[in-house]
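Field notebook, page 452. I keep forgetting to write these up properly, so this time I am using the form the group agreed on. The chain and the ligand, 4'-deoxy-4'-aminopyridoxal-5'-phosphate, are recorded exactly as supplied. Prediction of the bound pose follows.
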Amino acid sequence: MGDSSTPAGDSAISGDLPQPCSQPLNVLSDEFYRARLSDAAKTRKADGIRALFPLEARSGLISLLAGKPNEETFPITSLQFTMRDPSSAEDIKLELTEGELHQGLQYTPTNGFEELREWVFGLQAFQHDRQKGEGWTVSIGAGSQDLIFKAASALLNPGDALFVEAPVYAGVLPVFHSLGCDMIEAETDAYGICSGSLRTVLENWPSTRPKPRALYTVPYGCNPTGMTATLERRLEVLELSREHDFIILEDDPYYNLYFGRSDRPPSYFTLDRSQPEVGRVVRFDSLSKIISSGIRIGFVSGPNVVVHAMDQHTMAVNLQPSSLSQAVTLKVLKSWGYEGFALHTSRIAQFYREKRDIFEAAMQRHLAGLAEWTKPEAGMFFWFKLLLDGDGDSESLIRTKALERGVLAIPGTVFLPSGRKSAYVRTSFSILPAEQVDEALRRLRDVILDAR
Ligand code: PMP
């Protein structure tokens, strides 16, 4: 992969990235996506000032364009920080150069720093075998949540149906609710979306009603179920997307937190490239679990028309992602090179694997016979079914009784668009030390035994 020796401050992140494949691809046309843009996306217009920003890079040009404040008036004059070095026990000291600091404190492009976007193109070539120039592009956002909202707004009109895997990441329910979409639950199990039942739903879809325009899924270490979709399921879902004309929203913040089988399934974004028509996937990545959740950097990789529509949304609502967050992120990424990134993420995956094992051992000690679960292979969640009598609803037990005993977890109903009853519970194993995991699950056992 990349060159780990790339010195901090170099202008580019170098590396031996895979070369573009010479085979012609049948990429879906811009017209295909234009026809699928939402009414809101079609009516958004580019900001007349920001649209001219790229011209400022022309050499010899004197720009009287933007109302940029003069950096000399800013009070911050240097920015240093210390970073863990994935390849040694020593920390590394980094300092933004004057140019980097100015860029970090100034207005910058709507879709993110050019250099950061180039880093993402390189990452997608390395991790997902997707080459720049094949009809897709990249934009940086304030975390992946920001981009998921903008993608949904670009593709969905009020009243449109879309599939969401169920259970689903609870953070997208307000997104689709606020856009007035009709969420159709796509059943899942330990292998991912149940493609057979999805096919049945689609084949029996009433002819009077437009079919779902998109499908939202978290394919690795799903939040909340912890499941990782198998290759077979992914391929079947992709095939359905082509047969029934929907776009896959692949939200993948746990891709780099994969600690399961060595033959991990490829992403939807990778698999899309070998389809008869390329371009059914909009992919969301996040640096929240890798660099910092507070720094708020995520990126989208998807068809040009869709990503440009999202950029116009950004112009209207927040102008751009934070320049300072991008400057710090880029400094870290350049210091690592792609090899350092790979080393760092494999360390994190190992860290969470150990946390998972500690949590599972405590589950075995305290909840064997009281709950059922599947061991997650990625991410940071255990999703388990309480073996309760009666209606099998975990809601009051978790929300009230567990809380009274001093343990906080999330009842399964929170992750279901319909809000129907669920016997499941989501617990996170990312933060707690072993003693607190043990104590939390011991308390949960007492609550379950009391309820029986
Ligand atoms: N998608 C999923 C599945 C998540 O779990 C989260 C964070 N909990 C997000 C998106 C939002 O991530 P970000 O911090 O990048 O906005």
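OBSERVATIONS:
- The chain has two domains: 103-337, 345-451.
- The first helix runs from residue 30 to 34.
FOLLOW-UP: compare against the apo run.
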